[in-house]
UniProtKB/TrEMBL annotation:
<dbReference type="Pfam" id="PF02699">
    <property type="entry name" value="YajC"/>
</dbReference>
<comment type="subunit">
    <text>Part of the SecDF-YidC-YajC translocase complex. The SecDF-YidC-YajC translocase forms a supercomplex with SecYEG, called the holo-translocon (HTL).</text>
</comment>
<comment type="function">
    <text>The SecYEG-SecDF-YajC-YidC holo-translocon (HTL) protein secretase/insertase is a supercomplex required for protein secretion, insertion of proteins into membranes, and assembly of membrane protein complexes. While the SecYEG complex is essential for assembly of a number of proteins and complexes, the SecDF-YajC-YidC subcomplex facilitates these functions.</text>
</comment>
<keyword id="KW-0812">Transmembrane</keyword>
<dbReference type="GO" id="GO:0005886">
    <property type="term" value="C:plasma membrane"/>
</dbReference>
<dbReference type="InterPro" id="IPR003849">
    <property type="entry name" value="Preprotein_translocase_YajC"/>
</dbReference>
<protein>
    <recommendedName>
        <fullName>Sec translocon accessory complex subunit YajC</fullName>
    </recommendedName>
</protein>
<dbReference type="GO" id="GO:0015031">
    <property type="term" value="P:protein transport"/>
</dbReference>
<keyword id="KW-0472">Membrane</keyword>
<comment type="similarity">
    <text>Belongs to the YajC family.</text>
</comment>
<keyword id="KW-1003">Cell membrane</keyword>
<keyword id="KW-0811">Translocation</keyword>
<keyword id="KW-0653">Protein transport</keyword>
<feature type="transmembrane region" description="Helical">
    <location>
        <begin position="12"/>
        <end position="36"/>
    </location>
</feature>
<keyword id="KW-1133">Transmembrane helix</keyword>
<keyword id="KW-0813">Transport</keyword>
């Protein structure tokens, strides 16, 4: 009719075929690693260090926006914080988003 059959032509002489096809994917992954994954891992490490160094008397901000003072460090995962005079709440350490004021460690005698 109006359309003639099309025949595939053999690919001729593309140098480094397989490597050249995967090169854009490798470059995209490398760019994503350096722009997204690596900075996020660094941020997580800094947060874990900050949370592990919390001690009594530190003034903190939780992820909910509550400003509190660390009253007691219970264990590896929990803190008792004072959000008002005489009002103490137990929170999970990982919910601390920022440390406002650090206290100095007690002098050893």
């Amino acid at each position: 009719m109006f359309a003639s059959p099309a025949y595939a032509q053999a690919a001729g002489g593309a140098g480094g075929g397989a490597i050249m096809q995967f090169l854009p994917l490798i470059l995209i992954f490398a760019i994503m690693y350096f722009l997204l994954i690596r900075p996020q891992q660094k941020k997580v490490k800094e947060h874990q260090k900050m949370v592990s160094e919390l001690r009594r008397g530190d003034q903190i901000v939780t992820q909910g926006g509550i400003i509190a003072k660390v009253y007691k460090v219970r264990d590896d995962n929990e803190l008792d914080v004072e959000i008002a005079d005489g009002v103490r709440v137990r929170i999970v350490r990982s919910t601390v988003s920022q440390v406002l004021n650090k206290t100095e460690p007690a002098a050893e005698s």
